[in-house]
Amino acid sequence: MLLLQHLFPQWSITRDERGLWRATVSASSVDGLLDVLAAADPQGARRAACLLKERRSAGRDPG
After folding, report:
1. Longest dimension (CA), the chain
2. Are 44 and 37 in contact (CB under 8 A)?
3. I need a labelling partner for 17 at 20 to 30 A (CA). Which of 10, 49, 54, 55 fits?
4. What's the rounded Cα separation, in Å, for the pair 47 and 63?
5. Is 34 part of any domain?
6. From CA 3, how far away is CA 10, in angstroms rounded?
7. For the segment 6-51, what is each residue's pLDDT rounded down to a tens digit?
8. pLDDT tens-place string over residues 17-28
9. pLDDT band, residue 60 (cuts 50/70/90)
10. Residue 27: domain span
11. Which residues of 32-51 are buried (b: 16+ CB within 10 A; e: fewer)?
């Protein structure tokens, strides 16, 4: 777990009472969130950015 916290310092990584691992992250903007997600999954962050761009283009701004 220390390795994960070192690799992803913006993430809060915990284990709940049932033994399930949880990772949470917060950011002050969508762009900041995408930056944090890109550290863990660059391709997934690119897909998310494309989806957000499509939503904004369609007038459904998520934030």
Report:
1. 42
2. yes
3. 10
4. 17
5. yes
6. 13
7. 888 888 999 999 999 999 988 899 889 899 889 889 999 999 999 9
8. 999 999 998 889
9. low
10. 2-57
11. ebbebbeeeeeeebeebeee
Residue 27's alpha-carbon distances to 20, 22, 30, 50, in angstroms, are 23, 17, 7, 19
Q: Which amino acid is at 23?
A: A
How many residues are listed for the chain in this entry?
63
Q: What is the pTM of this model?
A: 0.61
Domain count, the chain: 1
Q: Which residue has the tokens 């998310």?
A: 48
Residue tagged 């550290």 (tokens) = 39
Q: What 3-state class would DSSP assign to 14?
A: strand
Does 63 fall in a domain?
Answer: no
Q: Is-contact 37 48, C-beta < 8 A? A: yes
Is there a domain that residue 62 lies in? Answer: no
